[in-house]
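This entry is passed on directly below:
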Amino acid sequence: MRDLKHLKYFEDLLQEANNELIVKAKSEGKICAAFLCENTPEPLMNLGNAFGVRLFAPNTGSMDIATYYMTSFLCESSRALLERSIEGGYNFADCLVAPDGCTMINRAAENMELLHTMDGGDERFFYENMEVPLKADENGVKLMKLQCLNHILTPLEKNYGIDVSDAAIRAAVKEHNEICELIMALGQFRKENKPRITAYEFAVFTLATYVCPKYLIKEKLQETLEEVKNREPDNKPYRARVVVVGSEVDDVGFIKLIEECGAYVCADRFCFGSLPGRVPIELNDGEDAFTQVCRHYVYMTHCPRQMNMEKVYGRKEYVAELAKEYGADGIIYQQIKFCDPWAYERLLGSTILHEDYGYPVLSVDRPYNVASSVGQMRTRVQAFVESIEIKKIQGGAN
């Protein structure tokens, strides 16, 4: 297929956390509200003069210093974030909000605060650790509201004079939804038998919406959507269509590796992904926007941190529905090495999706930077793709 006009531009943005759009926004006097977990209500980080950025650590190499503080038994994602923070890679941030999605992210954020890796002596800078609900119910919504009020809205308003009114929240949700609608529209093309957007391209555009100021990428995303609509797809078929599920994937090289093995990632359910992370937030006029945003994040999330049984089994049903809707032949269940929440979820999910829903499942743990073990991962994905092809030849027999 013909190269997309803005793909190289977005690829370059993902090469470092402090990308050129963050530099531009900061030069315009904007406040950078950094956060560490998908359980953070994003629109609340994009209020008024603030813009939210989810931290990641592209091109991670050695994590020796972070391992000294956190040990080698904690997940590579949390250690990579701490390492990059100690290196000064997040000095553009004006605050840090870290929900307790897991204890490892908590430890990373705690060390960032204790070591003063990001504040640069600025008295206005604040580190906030917030609790998020374990259950999706109205009590969980109340807890989320209290935590967001105490750890996001109040410090943003007090320290930086950010407008946290209902009107400001509705404006932030509108901007958030515009970006989500663009990503969801691009994602619809993945349902085609001959997709006119590659999985790697889609992953690049989606990741950029988390790590760049949204108002500075909207125009290029709009142009990309129009370009894809008129794009001629390749005639070469993929060997298999897969859904990738699990912990965070902020290394688009992992998606590229899968695609190079002949598999098309037709849908995603991972942190930094589009489903459900880029599902628009529906607001009504009968209730304040703050409550509705918190309710959306409590009920919409498919994070294994939520432990009520409706969510435990609902997460597997959701993946099965995605696989059916997007025409998947199999599922890749992945986790970052030493990620405790997704380790348990991967074991249960890969078993249920195979035994109860009949999907072939590849269950893997992987390094934060997939380039560090690309050979091993490529071998496993290739073998999985070949097994799907064999089953197709045999008529789908188990």
